[in-house]
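Entry:
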Amino acid sequence: MSEGQRLFIDGAWREPDGGHYEVVDPATEGTVGWAPEASPDQAREACAAAREAFGPWSRTPAEERAAILGRAADIVRARLLPYAELARAETGATTGTARGMQVGVGAARFRRYARVEPAEWPVPPQINEAGPMGRAGVMGALAVRQPVGVVTCVTSYNNPWANPAGKIAPALAMGNTVVVKPAPQDPLSVYRMAEALEEAGVPRGVVNVVSGRAVGIGETAVSSPDVDMVSFTGSTAVGQRIAEVCGRQMKRQLMELGGKGAAVVLDDADVASAVAGIGTTFSFYSGQICTAPTRVLAQRGVYDRLVEQLVSYAGRLKVGDPREADTVVGPVISAAHRDRVESYVELGRKEGAVVVTGGERPPLERGFYVAPTLLADCANGMRVAREEIFGPVVVVIPFDEEEEGVALANDSDYGLIDYVWSADVAKAFRVARRLRAGGVGINTVGRNMEAPFGGFKRSGVGRDVGSYALHAYSEVQAIVWPG
């Protein structure tokens, strides 16, 4: 970029009060571009613009809102290659991941919410036994989904396309307006998304994007009295602070927080399938994803084979330049995060875990790389087994009986997505229903993108994806009349 990126506020591209800061390519440590540093005043202006735009946008027919989302999907899809190259540079994702799982999924999410779904449904009539209508009063009712209002969307760094699109698209489809606060590490992609929406015809003030490294930008966008709801993806610690603000002000909230996914591998499991699924922790965003199966619980009969094959699998993965076609594991987002991940590996050693592969920094001249690392002979009480590392690190814990495996899986502060591998499907479903997690994959790490997504315990509040996202970004109103 020859000049710094501008903020997008009230339909205009604005110079940031705080100047610009460098966005760094995690693979080359070079400059990707210059991101805008908004001031708290500019964040307040964005919230006020969204409030002003809410009335007209919420009254716009759903079909017109959907048509804008459909045009945005087409624009993003047409620019997939340059958008993916920017995403790759900002995040360090491999080219295939940037195209398919970042920009491609972002476009798909706009396309998904470009279809209109019913926003009201009848409630069965009720015959009242008593009350002001008399003993035989019959009351009809209708439940109607109404937009919440202004939604502040605080997005994560691991996917600057799929994550913001998954918030913006259903929020706009329901008639809300949004203020987007992207992650400071890779905000440039989110501004490209705003450009696509502007070109698609979104009215001024409906979408606003303000970025910055200063904590005050996000705090202002969350606490503004113009904001009715906060949708946040990120760490549990930050989510708790946002939830405190929402609680004091009675704002609605949708929280997608951390995870420490348990992969329960039973004795009768297809080990190759389990290895391929667990191995995505090493390759998919280099482990920087809350849904990863990072905590493997292996039954004794399969434990040694599983560890041996995970070591072999990790050893075949090429770590390096994400632009090269055969690279599987790219860098993590920053030098500071690399240091954090490495400190957890060292902590695991001190706690008594055995580093059976990885554990050393790859011999590359530049870039923030972490080798795929497997920690065996772990115990569930170790910090490496309890805390979210958010890198290409997997811990393996042995267990004896099924009951113990379930208990270990549930002995966690988190509960986002767990996994079960077993050749006995009935057994796998039995175990899955006992796991305290928002989702469970049986013999797969794949997801159904119409199924509800969200966590138990400290992994979040609320559900989104598919029709569930439309519920998340709406209030339900009851309209009642005498029959």
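The first strand starts at residue 7 and ends at 9.
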